Amino acid sequence: MKGNFVVERIALHLVDRQLSCPRFSPHEVDLAAFTRLDDLEAIESFFFGHLTEVWTASEGSRTRAATFGQMADMRHYYDELTHDISQFFLRSCTMAQRLYDVSHGLRTSPGLLMILWVRKTGDPRPFLTLFKMDPGRTDKITLRIDAAGEILLDLAVHHIEQTLPDTSDRVLKWAVIPHPTRHTFDVKVKDKEGGADLAQYFMTFLGCEARSTEKQQVQSLLEALPAYAQDYHAHEDWETGVREVIKELESAPIITPEVVTKKVQELNVFEGFQVEAFRSTLANFKAADLDISPKVLRATKIEYELPSGILIRGPIAAMESFVKPIPQNGDIEFRIRTPSYDKRYV
Description:
14 strands, elongated, eight-stranded antiparallel β-sheet, 3 domains, two-stranded antiparallel ribbon, alpha+beta
């Protein structure tokens, strides 16, 4: 299948609170039934588009990493299916019923629950992927064809009453178990309907709790490092030590609490480094479960916004090395150290 995705199992069920119960499909979708090459290519393109969106979606208020609670049924279902995939269709019905049940008494949109069992080349883990989609009417603009099959230079409109979305426009929610790129976490989840945050009923359905985004974790790390250094190494040149640690982390394969701790120890930037106190500081700044790509750290910038409307903004390493706010008679003076500069109007 396209994009190194292999969709092994598919189930579809309709979840609508206006009905007395979910409308279950009588059986799984049989991909082998698509014998025409162009039909199969269309199906593969459909799955490739949606799965690529899941794998590459950036985290934000509506797309989050999450971890399972201790009693999460969805964790149990995933573990069960990794050992006995023959239970896939039965469990897909259980999931549809659960989604229907947890939305009881709520104003939720009806949707098609599509459940996939997916493999990704290069990753030994199977993935359980769930989409809640809005199947709706689509108008396709095509060219007219005459009775002989010849294309006419004229337009035609085909009204299709029930289609599945080719893009994310009508994908209301999705989740993939386990998280495909941040291995510390159990789930990657998106909820388009959740307003400023994820809808609680969908998180209840999954049995998970949202964790901080990578950007939020970067901010926590950048606050925790100097906080620890000031508390335990105030007599040292701790600012230089913090800069060295951050610079080294930018080239790490992944940034976790263990990696940060090891980098501090290897660089020996703090005399008598206290591991337990450092881990406690990370926890206080909600950075105890760090799982950050170094590219996110490299892309992070520091910005000072002054009351005058002036912005001083730049990469972390440069800002920490060359820009210093200094208290001055009740004001703050910014000292910028640089060998040269260009002046231009923008």
